[in-house]
Write a structure and sequence with these properties.
Helices cover 23% and strands 27% of the residues. The chain is α/β, with parallel strands linked by helices and 127 residues long. The chain has one domain: 60s Ribosomal Protein L30, Chain: A. Strands 3-2-4-1-5 form a five-stranded mixed β-sheet. α2 (57-62) links the parallel β2 (41-48) and β3 (72-76). The longest helix has 19 residues, at 16-34. It is globular. The protein starts with a strand and ends with a helix. GO terms for molecular function: chorismate mutase activity.
Length: 127
């Protein structure tokens, strides 16, 4: 069965190095917390707020060890007034037998504000 695993992270600035570093961090944390191997991933969709435009976060995923052939696509989020700035969101489609309610959705940095109901240990996730 395919399940969606969500994650989000914020960056301090629209800087390519930070975007790639934080995207890698988020994806690896999502994989670790859910026991995901790259061969289990059907696809990954990454969206950014419109204030992120200096790098493709998908590049961070494609350069991770064993993730080269995972299909990844980037897009921009809707530009809604008052939304969380400098945010990268990931939707990972994973082949798993884990029940929906057992999926660990990962929110890091200021992105914990998006879904505090899904953050199990907020203090450990905020850096």
């Amino acid at each position: 069965m395919i399940r969606g695993v969500r994650g989000a992270i914020t960056v301090g600035a629209d800087q390519p190095e930070e975007i790639l570093r934080e995207t890698s961090r988020l994806v690896l944390e999502m994989a670790k917390e859910n026991g995901i191997e790259p061969d289990d991933v059907a696809s990954v969709i990454i969206s950014t707020t419109t204030d992120i435009a200096s790098a493709f976060p998908a590049k961070a995923v494609r350069t991770l060890e064993d993730w080269t052939y995972v299909p990844v696509m980037c897009t921009h989020e809707m530009d809604v007034p008052g939304s969380l700035p400098l945010c990268i969101r990931v939707m990972m489609h994973v082949n798993t037998n884990v029940a929906q309610k057992e999926i660990q959705h990962i929110y890091l940095n200021d992105a914990v504000k998006l879904r505090p109901d899904l953050v199990r240990n907020t203090e450990a996730k905020v850096l």
